[in-house]
Automatic annotation (TrEMBL):
<feature type="binding site">
    <location>
        <position position="242"/>
    </location>
    <ligand>
        <name>Zn(2+)</name>
    </ligand>
</feature>
<feature type="active site">
    <location>
        <position position="261"/>
    </location>
</feature>
<dbReference type="InterPro" id="IPR014710">
    <property type="entry name" value="RmlC-like_jellyroll"/>
</dbReference>
<dbReference type="GO" id="GO:0005829">
    <property type="term" value="C:cytosol"/>
</dbReference>
<dbReference type="InterPro" id="IPR011051">
    <property type="entry name" value="RmlC_Cupin_sf"/>
</dbReference>
<keyword id="KW-0862">Zinc</keyword>
<dbReference type="InterPro" id="IPR016305">
    <property type="entry name" value="Mannose-6-P_Isomerase"/>
</dbReference>
<dbReference type="InterPro" id="IPR046457">
    <property type="entry name" value="PMI_typeI_cat"/>
</dbReference>
<protein>
    <recommendedName>
        <fullName>mannose-6-phosphate isomerase</fullName>
        <ecNumber>5.3.1.8</ecNumber>
    </recommendedName>
</protein>
<feature type="binding site">
    <location>
        <position position="120"/>
    </location>
    <ligand>
        <name>Zn(2+)</name>
    </ligand>
</feature>
<keyword id="KW-0479">Metal-binding</keyword>
<feature type="binding site">
    <location>
        <position position="96"/>
    </location>
    <ligand>
        <name>Zn(2+)</name>
    </ligand>
</feature>
<dbReference type="Pfam" id="PF20511">
    <property type="entry name" value="PMI_typeI_cat"/>
</dbReference>
<dbReference type="GO" id="GO:0005975">
    <property type="term" value="P:carbohydrate metabolic process"/>
</dbReference>
<dbReference type="InterPro" id="IPR001250">
    <property type="entry name" value="Man6P_Isoase-1"/>
</dbReference>
<feature type="domain" description="Phosphomannose isomerase type I catalytic">
    <location>
        <begin position="1"/>
        <end position="135"/>
    </location>
</feature>
<comment type="similarity">
    <text>Belongs to the mannose-6-phosphate isomerase type 1 family.</text>
</comment>
Length: 372
């Protein structure tokens, strides 16, 4: 058992104060979007060491079997299986999609940074707003009919006659000529300007303040709007279109950074690859907070499994038997393994080796990430 030092990611969609407040630090002069806990090569967590410090990726590369166990090394082909994050968006992330393992392996060279999938799940710490998954096509047809935007209705009607209407609709929207696209976005934003009858409408208006004229605003109409309440869990499988909006959440994912974008971003949009990997029927899984002090959010993928242990003055055993990253939030916890104890303040984390029996007590909540 040893401490982990998170890596802060300063993306422009992040909050200036949410993560510092959660972790007991003064806000800085740059937004903090994510805290990373894991061994991803682009931002591995630091590890205090005698005479300096190292990081989790270096330790893993030196002796992977000792760190995660022989079974995990074999199953995950020598790659550290999962990564834990804390997210704090204040404006929309890009509309995006992640490939399956097979899709990442079959992609054209240079499409992805690695050959791994990126399924992900999150637990809301505050109310967490997102667009996730595509609406049923019949719902899209009904929604668009109510907007009375003739140019959008024509596209939706055309797509309905194609083999995969939702994919055809995405392709049609994303490949519009620029003048036509700009006019369509203006018409759609005008049509929803005073409407509150669908929760997506006010959310899209807020996004339009940051991304005026972006065709992603129309793509959001095709997606499900969802607000996860504190303690709720949302799993996002491969091929599921999504765009996180705002709030604070703990996120767990496979150890990959493979992303294909579909709007609301200045970064490149790879339309052919998006259309290849998107699965309109790939729906999110949402669960309410499980009961009990030790809460199991379920297994939806082989890559990760997430638990939480609520506050309590008496020590209780931390769940899981494989390699684990544990993160204390919303107050302090004490984790104990044999004669060794670590005091974890909110935002502090530790790594537990496979088979290590560790207990936790304290007034904070401990999130426990492990392989599936």
């Amino acid at each position: 058992m040893f401490r982990l030092i998170p890596r802060v990611q300063h993306y422009d969609w992040g909050s200036y104060d949410a993560l510092p407040r959660l972790t007991g630090r003064a806000p800085g002069d740059r937004p903090e979007a994510e805290l990373w806990f894991g061994a991803h090569e682009s931002a591995p967590s630091g590890v205090p060491a005698a005479g300096g410090h190292t990081d989790l990726a270096v330790l893993y590369q030196a002796n992977p079997k000792a760190l995660v166990g022989a079974d995990a090394v074999r199953v995950f082909d020598g790659r550290f299986p999962f990564m834990l994050k804390v997210l704090a968006p204040t404006k929309s992330l890009s509309i995006q999609c992640h490939p399956s393992r097979e899709q990442a392996q079959d992609a054209t060279d240079g499409t992805y940074v690695d050959t791994w999938p990126k399924p992900e799940g999150l637990v809301a710490i505050t109310p967490f707003e997102t667009f996730v998954g595509m609406r049923d096509y019949a719902d899209i047809v009904s929604l668009v009919a109510g907007l009375e935007v003739p140019e959008l209705s024509a596209i939706v009607e055309w797509a309905s006659g194609q083999d995969e209407p939702s994919v055809a609709l995405l392709e049609a929207l994303l490949t519009l000529d620029l003048p036509v696209r700009n006019a369509l976005v203006r018409s759609v934003i005008g049509a929803i300007a005073d409407r509150e009858d669908d929760p997506a409408f006010p959310a899209i208006r807020r996004v339009a303040e940051d991304f005026p004229g972006d065709i992603g605003l129309v793509v959001l109409l095709t997606m499900n709007h969802l607000t996860a309440m504190p303690g709720d869990y949302v799993f996002v499988p491969a091929g599921c279109l999504h765009a996180y909006q705002h709030g604070v959440a703990v996120e767990i994912m496979a150890n990959s950074d493979n992303v294909i974008r579909a709007g609301l971003t200045p970064k490149a949009i790879n339309i052919p690859e998006l259309l290849r990997i998107v699965r309109p029927d790939s729906a999110p899984i949402r669960r309410s907070e499980p009961p009990g002090r030790v809460r199991d959010y379920g297994v939806d993928t082989d890559y990760f499994h997430l638990y939480a242990v609520g506050p309590g003055p008496e020590a209780t055993l931390i769940p899981g038997a494989g390699p684990r990253i544990v993160l204390s939030l919303q107050d302090s916890t004490t984790v104990t393994s044999g004669p060794t104890s670590l005091e974890l303040s909110s935002g502090d984390a530790a790594f537990l080796a496979p088979g290590e029996d560790v207990t936790v007590a304290g007034s904070g909540t401990l999130f426990v990430a492990t392989a599936g």
